[in-house]
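User: Here's a chain of 118 residues. Predict its fold as tokens.
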Amino acid sequence: MPDPATVLKKLEKLCLSFPDTKLTITWGEPHFRVGEKIFAGYGEEQGEPKITFKLEKAHAAILVDADPRFSRAPYVGKHGWVSMDATRVDDWDELGDLILESYRLIAPKKSLAKLKTL
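Assistant: Prediction complete.
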């Protein structure tokens, strides 16, 4: 099982690699924003470490139904937000693709244009 501090450090590096992003402490836990909008977060749900991000609603439904690492995020799951068990991250490329999808859904056009030039 990966160390939560190591997972958070890798998540931070991944999220802050996108244009116009920053780390904020929101509701007492680390969240990653593009501009002022959250696109990913890290925290605990019922004592378990979770990584939370937004996906297209259909994609979120498929993951939640097919993979036990994923669940609907509390309060915002109906909008496509998913929680992933942070102790079960074994493929950082997979997680990177999911976080990128969230970033693309949340980021303003100006930030997305910078992403295309990277």
